[in-house]
Amino acid sequence: MSYQIEICANSVQSAINAEKGGANRVELCDNLWEGGTTPSMATIMLAKQQVSIDVYVLIRPRGGDFVYSDLEFEIIKKDILLCKEAGVDGIVCGVLLPSGEVDIGRTKELVKLSHPLPFTFHRAIDHVSDIEKGIADLKECGVARLLTSGQKTSAIDGLDKLMMMSSCAGDEISIMPGGGVNADNVQKLYKRGFREFHFSAKSHVKGQKNYSNKVPMNGSIDIPEETIQVSDTNKIQEIKKLLDAIE
Description:
The protein has 247 residues and is of the alpha/beta class. 36% of the residues lie in helices and 18% in strands. It has 8 helices and 10 strands. The chain has helices at 12-21, 41-50, 70-85, 104-114, 131-141, 159-169, 186-191, 233-245, and strands at 4-9, 25-28, 54-58, 90-93, 119-121, 145-148, 174-177, 196-199, 202-206, 227-231. It has an 8-stranded parallel sheet with strand order 7-6-5-4-3-2-1-8. The relative contact order is 0.15.
């Protein structure tokens, strides 16, 4: 098997489902509605206990942009150290400058702090102002891979940019498409040369309560609160079968 499936897992249950579905690893996170934030240490520790596949952890102290204050950067560093103590298998993070450039100094510091764990620079790369320079900067920083949608909403829409990024990265950095990767497009991505795929394969599962007075806890009716997001074993297996079919 030449490909790798990484599931964006928002809970321990999603991590368990990812392993059952045949994923190679999970990127453990919280708050998918915000694009993912750092999960709790209890979630990290229990995920490591419950699954045997690799557990990478997203380190992102808040939603919003990827330009962090000194205090937020200290939180990021502390979370990386705690993750290493918990025995995780990889770190996922991304830090930018206000200008839209990779923050080379801080990224180098985080890569060094994460060592010997592999460091994935996440979709912050989709917000850089000059993608070729950004990839060159990340080569200098020593990151292992880039998680990217090709600077579009979905990876399939950003396929041309993904191809360009792959050419720029060469053998030094793996380009992992993420964002809208599903059964309808994963084979097309594979045929264009990509071998790592990131997706959540999530389904919305009804919660256990039988009564609700419909008061939104987040002050908005845009986010459904009667259901729970969880990675779906069947969806993961379906995508795995599609990849196996063209191996």
